[in-house]
Design goal:
- With about 475 residues, this protein is an alpha/beta fold.
- The protein has three domains: about 210 residues, Rossmann fold; about 100 residues, Luciferase, domain 3; about 90 residues, ANL, C-terminal domain (GMP Synthetase, Chain A, domain 3, 2-Layer Sandwich), CATH 3.30.300.
- Helix content is about 30%, strand content about 25%.
- The protein contains 13 helices and 24 strands.
- Strands 2-1-10-9-11-12-13-14-15 form a nine-stranded mixed sheet, sandwiched between helices. Strands 4-3-5-6 form a four-stranded parallel sheet, with helices on both faces.
- α1 packs across α2, α4 packs across α5 and α7 crosses α9.
- The protein is globular and about 70 Å long.
- The structure holds malonyl-coenzyme A (MLC) and adenosine monophosphate.
- Adenosine monophosphate (AMP) binds next to β13, β18 and β19.
Length: about 475
Amino acid sequence: MSSLFPALDAPPAKPALRFTDQTTDRTIDFPTLRSLAHAVAGELRDQSRVAVWATPTAHTAVGVVGALLAGVPVVPINPKSGARELAHVLGDSEPSLVLTPPGVELPPALAGLAAFEVPLTPPDTAPAAPAAVVDPELPALIVYTSGTTGPPKGVLVSHRAVAATLDALADAWQWTADDEVVHGLPLFHVHGLVLGVLGPLRRGGTVRHLGRFSTAGVRDALSDGGTVLFGVPTMYHRLAEAVETDRALAEALAGARLLVSGSAPLPLPDHERLWAATGRRIVERYGMSETLMNTSVRADGPPATGTVGVALPGVEVRLVDEDGRPLAAHDSVGEIQVRGPNLFSGYLNRPDATAEAFDADGWFRTGDMATRDSTGGYRIVGRKSTDLIKSGGYKIGAGEIENVLLAHPAVAEAAVTAGPDPDLGERVIAWVVPRDPESPPSLDELSDHVVGQLAAHKRPREVRFLAALPRNELGKVLKRELV
Ligand code: MLC
Ligand code: AMP
């Protein structure tokens, strides 16, 4: 297989990366990216696996591209991770080095790890291209994703899976080198990193990162060369609110070639508001850290509002009943299972979890529930587990937060569920039996306690106190009774 980035072999004289960093804009063209990435690849040649302190800056893009060219697997790390998850990710993945922007003060958990500052100024003499051809089955990324219980699992994403998913999306979206992809997504998950950074670079197009998401940033970037917008539904919700008073934003969205939403369900009211204000339909695609992308509404197909579209080229998608039998009838609800070159290679150090995730014929069980219409379009209706929460597009495992809450001295028992939230889609709700019913802990106290251990997006947004949690005869908490 050729490299993930054919455009770096004969680099065009055009921007590869445009990042807004604080208030300054930084543009790196393809010849410069090639030189920087070759320099990084040369430095990393002897490393077995590297972490990337994944700030939303050009350093992350340059560091990841360099490591991939060198065939060194990358563990992207959320710079806002709490101490507990940081210790887990580093202990589990054992990187030999961490790539950072210059001058970053790393938390104590990384103190023992050698740091490599990613340069953004190319060396005077062009560094040699990496010699080795990378085995497509080698892990490109190890992305941590929450499960229902316990700490997050490292998903091994191969070079083959990245290439397969990006090429399937190129077909579905007519995605080319002429596209400039605008987004403000975090760079430690597959949406922002694989689709939002590696995607445009594989096409030979441009990444336009906003540094952080804002509706004004989207407006300015789409009015200044941006052609495609990627976002999670929370971002489209904020755009739907803002277009009502920001005429220039409505015009910028109307002028885009493609507006794509993913990572969580896009509420129909937001879709309709944006359609009314801009005349544009948001295209939804459906994926997962483990599978990368499975389905999408096609740019050359019918609008298919409310669905996540059809199977991408090369991806097999089916619905099964509770016994794992494929469903034939339209409009009956089943679990989505997928098979294809886009799938991950397993969970790091977790053969048990890997085995459980697949059936005997190699179908991956997504845990998402859907129906299929007569055109092959999928409509996601929910998910199997009450222990997973999607908040602002982030997947959050209830068990991980429950374990942290239980360590709080004022908490006797705790359960975590999802509640509806107009902005975030779902919010984290903590159900707590206080040790002393006369003085229960406050929401702020519990929230700060969680933020000390886990990333801030995992904090409870609401707390409800109970005298006891509803449990079955085996002592298992009956979450459906809570919600
Ligand atoms: C809040 N903060 C605290 C805190 N409470 N900090 C310290 N202590 C506390 N008690 C901080 C946060 O760190 C953050 O800082 C700020 O307050 C606001 O946090 P927030 O309210 O949680 O989020 P918000 O800024 O409103 O962000 C909304 C959002 C974000 C939509 C921009 O949720 C987001 O980027 N979501 C994208 C998730 C994503 O990429 N998912 C893809 C997964 S891959 P600061 O400094 O940031 O302001 C996948 C597969 C697929 O799903 O199909 O794509
Ligand atoms: P993650 O593990 O963070 O990669 O999240 C993957 C999950 O996000 C999927 O299993 C779905 O539940 C959800 N998801 C992703 N895209 C969509 C979408 N377009 N509509 C609904 N849910 C989605």
